[in-house]
Amino acid sequence: xxxxxxxxxxxxxxxxxxxxxxxxxxxxxxxxxxxxxxxxxxxxxxxxxxxxxxxxxxxxxxxxxxxxxxxxxxxxxxxxxxxxxxxxxxxxxxxxxxxxxxxxxxxxxxxxxxxxxxxxxxxxxxxxxxxxxxxxxxxxxxxxxxxxxxxxxxxxxxxxxxxxxxxxxxxxxxxxxxxxxxxxxxxxxxxxxxxxxxxxxxxxxxxxxxxxxxxxxxxxxxxxxxxxxxxxxxxxxx
Length: 238
Ligand SMILES: [Zn+2]
Ligand SMILES: [Zn+2]
Known about the structure:
The chain has helices spanning 3-9, 36-39, 65-70, 85-96, 100-117, 133-139, 143-155, 178-185, 213-224, and strands spanning 76-82, 125-128, 158-160, 164-166, 189-191, 202-209, 230-237.
């Protein structure tokens, strides 16, 4: 059994729902959220990875296309699982249906990943990508903040949920091209002017790495304020 599957099967004490979010089959026994055949489809993110951003799309010198073309502002990014259909369904439920127990399960998988691979040398503060205030009011909570809180709590790292402020309401990223995403997120964040950034090491948590534009923009803001290391962890990666 992979670590991931073990972490997954640990969440047996959860009572809902009775049908698989992914395929709709009735859940039996210890199954929670997704049936065992769907949970078997949750796969760890690839092992052959870019040493900066963690992509499996690695070229010469172990640097991927993203890092060649975009100039990553973070020092290291890692993602825990592949963004396949089952991961998509779980993250969708996490975002839109306030399923805090799914957040617990995904946070546990991330915690296990960090414990086993120790990707970050020293973390002073965990931060999350903000939802714009209006969006936050309508959705009720920020899933990235929830994940960040759980992970920070486990490792006794400091968590600052409001370090980043979203300056502008950005159009939803999902409908945009890669170029449009970069423009969309440029200047979308501001950093709390009173926060201690200089020479501190940060870990930014987000749910999905799609083009990397969002976490890269956030990392850039921290680097502008002379952060030392900026690390990124996303639960899933496309
Ligand atoms: Zn299923
Ligand atoms: Zn890379």
